[in-house]
């Protein structure tokens, strides 16, 4: 298959497309990034660390290991002194170091009526073969539990039925002296089994290890799927695999990519890659990395989120290991700039948000998320904030730095102002006048109030709100998309008040958004005519299944980050407890179906890696909340100060900066 692919592509393009083999990887790097002047002047010739002299950053002080956030965001953490061991601490000088942090500690969990319930504890049998790592877990489902899952309609109340923090066997101490439940141990074992090696080094994890289904591309390493695996590894101090992943995907970025005689933009990161073996000659077989930039993907969707995740992971690597030399490398800096240039290129766009085609992110099928979907905007914002901490400031990059700052400022204003929805805003929309032609129109996007869907009127609670899914001329997508909202909290794309309101809404709408399994990818599902028109009658995305209102346990880690940041740890604990009870029994599915996430998804893969890695990362964040804090961003007044527009000078219209600044005081 691969050979055919190669030949057909080569025949269309004069320059040969080569697969990266372990042998030629350094020479490949030497020919990387041909059009980037800074790369040329640096004349890369190896993958060795190249230290930059006079390295300055846009933001000062963001790169210190142990530098913990002092923001009011974390003031909810108690002042009880606590000793913790961070992965960064473990790494420095190879010694185990401990740090005392006064402002950290967990908010005590709120007790609720459900906590007092006498919940069934599953029987867990552990068979030991060769010591602790070889333990196998067999979970026996009780008859009561089976019937509980099978019986009951959609109308039952999962929040009260399924709060099951006590439903998991008591933890035991692992080799590192940390508490670990049997479920966690099983997940670690499965994560190890998902490892993909390239020339004998681990470089990623497969999407799923489900031998019962045709693998399609689930045997590949997906960039977005690897993020929770990477975090779990980093939090455990296993850093090499993440470094390998970052460097190998960097090489793939410069791939010569072709979709039917057209080459997508330079800097694009693949959606996934696979390690393949190639017959070099009669005797020799070589391993090669074969990326997919969407040219093989179902629907030929563009992996816009891959580069954004790569940048976010690069920052996380530095934060959690304390090793900033990776992001300082010239090849890494060049790759970073290439992604940024691709995202920041001017087009016909009128908005600061990124314009993308349908299915360009986690939802990689047609689901009506073309245009300016929230998920992409939240990841874009996070990637820009990450880049702002990592881009080396010099003469060659100063324009890029300016662009990053301007874009951050404009994007944050745009999303906070136009994507926000609560009761007050809904009432404004309800009374909108339309067809306003002027610079200071109230209804700037000409939204017809009739667009407000009936379900929405009663759904939004008084104390909550959320960022809508998409905004286009005369179109607001009122669906609630989980990843975009969670990531807006984590990155402070939303104002502090908005972020708080989003979690309030999730809590108030727990049955809809968590139900039997955290968390809904989007709410509500598209049904009937809407499903037919918007998904194109997609049989995989039927109402309340898969991307169309299915429940995805992988979203747990992002929820946990958001909850810890906002001082709502108890919400994450409840969600993790739900997942811990069901995931091992159900063989770690990719997603769940039905309105409340009651059934394993119709076509869900089992042993889905980001399900189990997301669970592990969540558990680790809850055990060491300071690590979660390292990955979040605080409100940054500098972003609100920056003003790219010249409006105030021209006197033509009022600059929006004042409005942006005033918002955070609310
Ligand atoms: C599905 C998901 C996508 C994921 C891939 C591999 O296509 O929609 O987000 O990356 O599976 O798990």
From TrEMBL:
Entry GO MF terms: endo-alpha-N-acetylgalactosaminidase activity; sucrose alpha-glucosidase activity
Organism domain of life: Eukaryota
Biased composition (Basic and acidic residues): 139-148
Annotated region (Disordered), positions in chain: 139-168
Enzyme class: hydrolase
A Pfam family hit: Glyco_hydro_100
Cellular component GO terms, alphabetical: mitochondrion
Enzyme Commission code(s) on record: 3.2.1.26
Single GO BP term: sucrose catabolic process
Reaction catalysed by this enzyme: Hydrolysis of terminal non-reducing beta-D-fructofuranoside residues in beta-D-fructofuranosides
Keyword set, alphabetical order: Carbohydrate metabolism, Glycosidase, Hydrolase
Homology family: Belongs to the glycosyl hydrolase 100 family.
Function: Invertase that cleaves sucrose into glucose and fructose.
Name under which the protein is recorded: Alkaline/neutral invertase
């Amino acid at each position: 298959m691969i050979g055919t692919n190669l030949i057909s592509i080569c025949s269309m393009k004069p320059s040969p497309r080569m697969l990266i083999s372990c042998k030629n990887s350094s020479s490949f790097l030497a020919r990387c990034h041909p059009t980037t002047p800074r790369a040329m002047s640096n004349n890369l010739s190896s993958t060795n660390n190249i230290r930059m002299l006079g390295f300055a950053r846009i933001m000062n002080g963001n790169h210190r290991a142990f530098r913990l956030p002092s923001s009011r965001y974390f003031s909810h953490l108690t002042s009880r002194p606590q000793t913790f061991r961070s992965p960064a601490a473990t790494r420095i000088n190879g010694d185990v170091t401990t740090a005392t942090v006064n402002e950290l500690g967990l908010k005590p969990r709120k007790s609720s009526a459900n906590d007092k319930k006498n919940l069934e504890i599953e029987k867990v049998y552990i068979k030991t073969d060769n010591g602790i790592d070889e333990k196998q877990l067999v979970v026996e489902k009780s008859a009561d539990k089976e019937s509980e899952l099978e019986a009951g309609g959609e109308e039952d109340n999962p929040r009260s039925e399924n709060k099951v923090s006590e439903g998991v066997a008591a933890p035991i101490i692992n080799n590192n002296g940390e508490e670990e439940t049997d479920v966690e141990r099983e997940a670690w074992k499965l994560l190890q089994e998902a490892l993909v090696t390239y020339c004998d080094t681990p470089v990623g994890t497969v999407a799923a290890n489900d031998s019962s289904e045709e693998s399609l591309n689930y045997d590949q390493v997906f960039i977005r799927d690897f993020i929770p695996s990477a975090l779990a590894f980093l939090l455990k101090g296993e850093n090499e695999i993440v470094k390998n992943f970052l460097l190998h995907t960097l090489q793939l970025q410069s791939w010569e990519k072709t979709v039917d005689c057209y080459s997508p933009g330079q800097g694009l990161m693949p959606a996934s890659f696979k390690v393949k073996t190639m017959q070099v000659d009669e005797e020799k077989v070589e391993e090669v990395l074969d990326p997919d930039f969407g040219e093989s993907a179902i629907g030929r969707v563009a992996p816009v989120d891959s580069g954004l995740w790569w940048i976010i992971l690069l920052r996380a690597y530095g934060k959690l290991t304390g090793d900033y030399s990776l992001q300082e490398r010239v090849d890494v800096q060049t790759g970073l700039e290439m992604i940024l240039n691709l995202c920041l290129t001017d087009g016909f766009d009128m908005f600061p948000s990124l314009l993308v085609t349908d299915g360009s992110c986690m939802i990689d099928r047609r689901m009506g998320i073309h245009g300016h979907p929230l998920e992409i905007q939240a990841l874009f914002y996070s990637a820009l904030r990450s880049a702002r901490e990592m881009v080396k400031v010099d003469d060659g990059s100063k324009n890029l730095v300016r662009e990053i700052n301007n874009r951050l400022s404009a994007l944050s204003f745009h999303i906070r102002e136009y994507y926000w929805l609560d009761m007050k805003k809904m009432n404004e929309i309800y009374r909108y006048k339309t067809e306003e032609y002027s610079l200071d129109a109230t209804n700037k996007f000409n939204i017809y109030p009739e667009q407000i869907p009936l379900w929405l009127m009663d759904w939004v609670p008084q104390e909550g709100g959320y960022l809508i899914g998409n905004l286009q001329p005369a179109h607001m997508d009122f669906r609630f998309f989980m990843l975009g909202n969670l990531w807006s909290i984590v990155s402070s794309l939303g104002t502090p008040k908005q972020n708080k309101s989003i979690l309030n809404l999730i809590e108030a709408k727990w049955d809809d958004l968590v139900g039997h399994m955290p968390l809904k990818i989007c709410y509500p599902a598209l049904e009937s005519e809407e499903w037919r028109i918007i998904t194109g009658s997609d049989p995989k995305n039927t109402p309340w299944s898969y991307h169309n209102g299915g429940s995805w346990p992988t979203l747990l880690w992002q929820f946990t980050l958001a909850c810890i940041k906002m001082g709502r740890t108890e919400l994450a604990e409840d969600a993790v407890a739900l997942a811990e009870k069901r995931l091992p029994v159900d063989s770690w599915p990719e997603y769940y179906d039905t309105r409340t996430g009651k059934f394993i998804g119709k076509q869900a893969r089992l042993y889905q890696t980001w399900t189990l890695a997301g669970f592990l990362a969540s558990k680790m964040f809850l055990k060491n909340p300071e690590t979660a804090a390292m990955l979040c961003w605080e409100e940054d007044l500098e972003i609100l100060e920056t003003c790219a527009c010249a409006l105030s000078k021209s006197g033509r219209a009022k600059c929006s900066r004042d409005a942006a600044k005033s918002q955070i005081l609310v």
